[in-house]
Amino acid sequence: MKAVVYEKYGTPDVLELREVDKPTPKSNEVLVKIYSTSVTAGDWRLRKADPFLARIFNGLFKPTKVKILGFELAGVIEDVGERS
Questions:
Q1: What is the three-state SS of the chain?
Q2: pTM tops 0.85
């Protein structure tokens, strides 16, 4: 699947369209096939690490947890993980 990924903090130039592995839903998760998404203030703040304290959540020197941005989406459920 394709995703816009960032490996370092900075301007929009750090964003890169890449082919990434399709995730497998874990217990109590669903996989959504996304048809539409948006860019929110949360997305650009994480990309830019603004405010600086955002680095505590996502990595001090580079993003380590969230490398694919996006919080809002529209799509359909494609797969369901196990129920616990």
A1: CEEEEECCCCCHHHEEEEECCCCCCCCCCEEEEEEEECCCHHHHHHHHCCCCCHHHHHCCCCCCCCCECCCCEEEEEEEECCCC
A2: no
Cis peptide before 25 (omega within 30 of 0): no
pLDDT along the chain (84 residues), means of 10: 93 95 94 93 90 87 88 95 84
Backbone φ, ψ for residue 52 (5° rounding)? -55, -30
Among 14, 71, 13, smallest CA distance to 37 is for 71
- Do 80 and 30 contact (CB within 8 A), yes or no? yes
